[in-house]
Amino acid sequence: MKNNNFIGTIPEMLVNMSNLEILNLGFNQLSGQVPSSIFKISSLKAIHLSSNSLLGSLPNDMCQHLPKLEGLYLSWNELSGNIPSSMGKCSNLKNLSLSYNHFMESFQEVLEI
């Protein structure tokens, strides 16, 4: 569903898609906060939400329910706040894109490198 000029918020009903492996809503005109329910779909391997107008912060426990997550793409949005400390618990994460947002700390601070 990438690059379809979708407008509005991300629907909460996505949480009902319990077998969903790839969520790609990038390059649309989505706004509002990223629903925390997305981070509870344990089957997800990739979340692509780049190049929208998403606001707010990411949930602190975002990686707690994503054991299979390999790719998280959130660049080119209006996300802010702290990068969740639970990011280090995404043990299968291979690709991470958080650029061009308004996060308040560096990723090194989150991982305590």
Automatic annotation (TrEMBL):
Gene3D superfamilies: Ribonuclease Inhibitor (3.80.10.10). The keyword Transmembrane applies. One of its GO terms (cellular component) is plasma membrane. Keywords: Cell membrane, Glycoprotein, Leucine-rich repeat, Membrane, Receptor, Repeat, Transmembrane, Transmembrane helix. It comes from the Eukaryota. It is a single-pass type I membrane protein. It is found in: Cell membrane. It holds the Pfam family LRR_1. InterPro entries: Leu-rich_rpt, LRR_dom_sf. Belongs to the RLP family. This is Leucine-rich repeat-containing N-terminal plant-type domain-containing protein.
